[in-house]
Predict the structure.
Amino acid sequence: MVTEHESEQQDRPALTPSLLLPGDGLELAADAYGDPADPPVVLLPGGGQTRHSWRRTARRLGDHGWYALAVDLRGHGDSGWAPDGDYTFERFGADLLALRAALSQPPVFVGASLGGLAALIALGREPDLARGLVLVDVSPFLQNEGTARIAGFMRSAPEGFASPAEAADAVAAYLPHRQRPRDTSGLHRNLRLVDGRWFWHWDPVFLFPPDEPDPERVTSMPTDLTAAAAASLRIPTMLVRGSRSDVVSEEDARRFLALVPHADYCDVAGAHHMVAGDDNASFDGRILDFLDRRIRPRLILDTAPVRGPGPADEAPALDSGPGVHGMPA
């Protein structure tokens, strides 16, 4: 759920997306930052979030030589709602396969929660889809209590709110570790007004499918599918965990790293599940370090002229070690 609210007028982006990208049978809204000629980084929000949750990170990436695309998932924000009501994990992944076809070069996927699972599923289908992957507080292994708490909040206001202030009160109760903003106008980009009531900006069918008697099945994760996708990863990968997350535990992180031994790992101290929102500066620094250390050398190799074989022409070994940082013993 998007919960960042800023009072500074200059930090409020226009609600109209910069561009529309193809998805699987619908269009995905996106905001672009940086030079389109630079290597792309596709930022994918979590369930219930919109592309606006990435604006600070995207702006910083754009300033550091990356073409950052913050994308609304299907049924979220300004992206298209699924005409067939299909919001299965596989369809979120299929959207990324379609999106990649619109880019001139492979991107790096940075996905939080549902966005990370979508990227993982897409890479399980096409391993060369991206140059790199960053999973933000999500893995094939999750804590049921934490995921149930998120789903419970997202389902808690099916009739909407009387005002953005009432929505802000609900968020404050859900995230007591964050200070409630005095100015709630920033919430407008994450709400839609329908018949005098304010609703979160996603398709209600996403959580309340009309033909599904058990709503819990909607958010149940296909562990076997995502674990198999993780085990097949051969691209630079990083797992970012909030140290106070109730969704990804330390044991979950260990299990992921056992599947993906070449992956980097970092634990952002004091952050909860929404890592970027809790500590944006630290999060951005970790992402930029990963991109510069693990992705840029590959870009240089990709553009290097082809020469004859020989000892002097051997490429430096990449991804040769686990690159695990801060993993608890």
The radius of gyration is 19 Å. The mean pLDDT is 84.
